[in-house]
Specification:
Distance between the termini: 22 Å
Radius of gyration: 24 Å
Structural class: mainly alpha
Strand content: under 5%
Order of helices and strands: HHHHHHHHHHHHHHHHHH
Number of strands: 0
Largest sheet: none
Length: 329
Amino acid sequence: MLRVSFFYLFIFILVACAHEPQKKQSKKDLDAQLIQDPNNVDLLIKRGNMRLSAHLLDKALNDAAKAFRLDSNRMESRILLANVLNNRPKRTPDDVAAAQRHYKFILKRKPKHTAALVGLASTYSYQMDFDQSFYYINQALRINPRYRDAYIMKGSNYLFLGKKELAKSSYETAVQQDPKFFEAYLMLGSIYQAEKNPICIEYYKTAVSLQPKNPDVVYSLAYAEQEFQQPLEAIKHYRQMIQLDKTYVQALNQIGLIKQYDLNEVDSALYYYNSALQSDPTFVEAWHNLGMCYEQKNDRFKALDCYKKAVKYNPNFELSRNRAKALSY
């Protein structure tokens, strides 16, 4: 049986003004205003932070770089640029070093700037200098003992260092400070799931209650329910996420697995694997699982054809290669 683990990619986003009340303004409004006034630094910073929060890092970088170029003396433009450089998925050591310089510049002007302190700490974590990272995290907490992002950064450090109990404690403290911070519930869920502790489901449920339209979050809950023998609940949530994102073929594949192995409904499993392949004909895992179904139905030739398709799309997929070899004799 082939089961595919799901790991939520947690990106630690530092938004300088995340905890400050702001007048709500839609991205559409900002786009329209910037067409009329393309060099308005205030608007560029607002849109850049909005894009940063939405993980649109390349677009955020355009706004941040332009705002900084227009007014490098503005702390808001400098920290936006630092945050974007520091959180790019494909950031380079040069990006992190540049962010580090910006954070240090800010702290020379404003030594109690907690967002800059935690941002600086995260650059040292990237550079594997955890002593320095913890130093700046603790500096931020001395200024504001309730600063959520400091606890998140501390938890991320502990998790990387393999100190799971301390990581859990830090994330728990973070959600005490901000009960709506769904990413921390996801991190707690993933830690408990890795420990084979079904309490992870409760953390994922909380995350889903906060982000009911986020398919990745719903997937985390569904996969945990599947892993901890709650097949009907898992199917319900996989279907929920398919409604949110019809291209999410892994959900169809997982329903197929539940139908095939947990509920012994092979014909239904065939339907879901084929549905996944209609969306993505190169989906190797679905081809393999389809082959396993046909083997259960004693249809050797169709099974062999499925395994050959899997190997066609991924020549290194050993599970299908071995089954194809076994059926060829």
